[in-house]
Design a protein that fits this description.
The protein folds into 2 domains: 166 residues, Farnesyl Diphosphate Synthase (Orthogonal Bundle), CATH 1.10.600.10; 154 residues, Farnesyl Diphosphate Synthase, CATH 1.10.600.10. The chain has 16 helices and 2 strands. The protein is flat, with a radius of gyration of 21 Å. By secondary structure, it is an all-alpha fold. Helices cover 74% and strands 1% of the residues. The longest helix is centred in the first third of the chain and has 28 residues. Keywords: Magnesium, Metal-binding, Transferase. This is Geranylgeranyl diphosphate synthase. One of its GO terms (biological process) is isoprenoid biosynthetic process. Belongs to the FPP/GGPP synthase family.
Length: 367
C-alpha cells in the first residue's frame, strides 16, 4: 500500500501526479492502511484467534484493485464544490471497503478460489483451518468464515464513513446515497444469481443486472455520494446519473468481454469460471440468439455446465466471435461512451476532463 507523505495533504484542485485515478488512489490507500491496522489491533485484543480474519482481509485490500469507486466519490465532490477536502477520503475509502465485502461474498457464491492473484478470503480461512489442525470440514469452515469476514468488512465500511468530519447535513445526504448503493448492489447480485437459471433470459434482463450490480454501484452512486457531500444541485445530480449509468454499464460489459475473450495472463482470470457458472451476459445471450442450431446446442450444453472443459470454453469463444456477438457488444460500448461524453460536455474543467479520463480507465482497458 501507499505510505502517507506530506504531499498527501495537498489540495487536488487539478489532476494530481499519477493522473485523476492514481493520485486519489494513493491517498485512499493511506487512509485504508491506517484504518485496517487499527481494526486488526482491535480484533487481536478481542481474541488472538481473530488474527487470520484480519490478515486475510488486509491482504485482499493490499493486493491491488483500481480504486475506481473512491475516485468517483472524490471527483463527484470536486464537481459539486470546485474544491477538495481530505475528509472526503474517508467516505471514499468506505466505498472501497464495501467493494471488498462484495468481493469476499462474490468469491464464495462463484466458488472462486483466488482473487487478485492470492487465495480468496474463504480459501485463506480454509487453509488456516487445515494448518491449525482444527476439527471438522475445512471447506465449510472457510465458507462460514468468509461470510463472517465479509460481514465484518461491511460494518467497517460504515465505521470509516462515519469517521469523516464533514458537515452534518452533507453527511446525512451522502448516507442516503450510500444506503441506495448498498441496496441496489444486493438486488443486482440476486438478479444475477437468478438470471443464471432463467431459461428465457433476454439482453434487456442482462443489461438490467449490469446497471444495478455494476453501473450504479461502481460509478453513479459513488459520484452522487461525493456530490451529496458537497451540496445539493438537482441539475448536477441528473448529469452524474446519466454519465454514471452509461459508464457503469459499459464497465460491466467490458468486464464480460475480458472475462470471456481476454488474455488470462493479463486479466488474471480465465473464461472457464464464468462459463461454468452459466453467466448470462450480453455476449452469451446475443450469441445464442444469432446462433445456428448446431452452435446453440453447444452453448446450451456448455454454458452453466460445472464440468465444462477448456476445449468447451474455446468452442464458446469461437461461437461468440462467429455470431457477431463480440462486435455487437463493442458497438453498444461505443454508444454508451458517446452518451457519457455528451452528458458531461457542459461541465467545466478539471471536473469534466477528470470524469472523461476515469471513463476511459473504466472502459478502455485490458484487465
Amino acid at each position: 500500500m501507499h505510505t502517507m507523505t506530506s504531499s498527501d495533504t495537498t489540495d487536488l484542485l487539478d489532476p494530481p501526479p499519477g493522473g485523476v485515478l492514481g493520485g486519489v488512489a494513493g491517498r485512499v490507500d493511506a487512509v485504508l492502511e491506517r484504518f485496517l491496522r487499527a481494526r486488526a489491533d482491535e480484533l487481536a485484543d478481542l481474541d488472538p484467534a481473530l488474527e487470520p480474519v484480519a490478515d486475510a482481509v488486509t491482504a485482499l485490500v493490499s493486493a491491488g484493485g483500481k480504486r475506481l469507486r473512491p475516485a468517483f466519490v472524490w471527483w463527484g465532490y470536486r464537481a459539486a464544490t470546485g474544491h477538495t477536502d481530505p475528509e472526503v477520503l474517508k467516505p471514499a475509502g468506505a466505498v472501497e471497503l464495501l467493494h471488498t465485502f462484495a468481493l469476499i461474498h462474490d468469491d464464495i457464491m462463484d466458488r472462486s478460489a483466488t482473487r487478485r492473484g492470492l487465495p480468496a478470503v474463504h480459501t485463506a480461512l480454509r487453509d488456516h483451518h487445515i494448518e491449525a489442525g482444527l476439527s471438522g470440514d475445512p471447506e465449510w469452515f472457510g465458507v462460514g468464515g468468509g461470510i463472517l469476514a465479509g460481514d465484518m468488512v461491511f460494518v467497517w465500511a460504515d465505521m470509516l464513513f462515519e469517521a469523516a468530519r464533514l458537515e452534518h447535513r452533507a453527511m446525512a445526504r451522502a448516507r442516503r446515497v450510500f444506503g441506495q448503493l448498498r441496496a441496489e448492489v444486493m438486488a443486482g447480485q440476486y438478479l444475477d444469481l437468478r438470471l443464471s437459471g432463467l431459461p428465457a433470459a433476454s439482453e434487456a434482463d442482462s443489461l438490467r443486472v449490469s446497471l444495478l450490480k455494476s453501473g450504479r454501484y461502481t460509478v453513479t452512486r459513488p459520484l452522487q455520494m461525493g456530490a451529496a457531500l458537497g451540496g445539493t444541485d438537482p441539475d448536477l445530480d441528473r448529469t452524474l446519473s446519466t454519465f454514471g449509468d452509461a459508464v457503469g454499464v459499459a464497465f460491466q460489459l467490458r468486464d464480460d468481454v475480458l472475462g470471456l475473450l481476454g488474455d488470462p495472463d493479463t486479466t488474471g482470470k480465465g473464461s472457464l469460471e464464468d462459463i461454468r457458472e452459466g453467466k448470462r451476459t450480453m455476449l452469451i445471450l446475443h450469441a445464442r440468439d444469432q446462433a445456428t442450431p448446431a452452435q446453440r446446442e453447444v452453448l446450451d450444453r456448455v454454458v452453466g455446465n460445472p464440468d465444462a472443459t477448456r476445449d468447451d470454453a474455446d468452442a464458446v469463444r469461437q461461437i461468440v466471435v462467429d455470431t457477431g456477438a463480440a462486435d455487437h457488444v463493442e458497438a453498444h460500448l461505443t454508444g454508451l461512451r458517446a452518451d457519457a461524453d455528451r452528458a458531461v460536455e457542459h461541465l467545466s474543467d478539471p471536473s469534466r476532463s477528470a470524469l472523461l479520463e476515469l471513463a476511459s480507465v473504466a472502459v478502455d482497458r485490458s484487465a
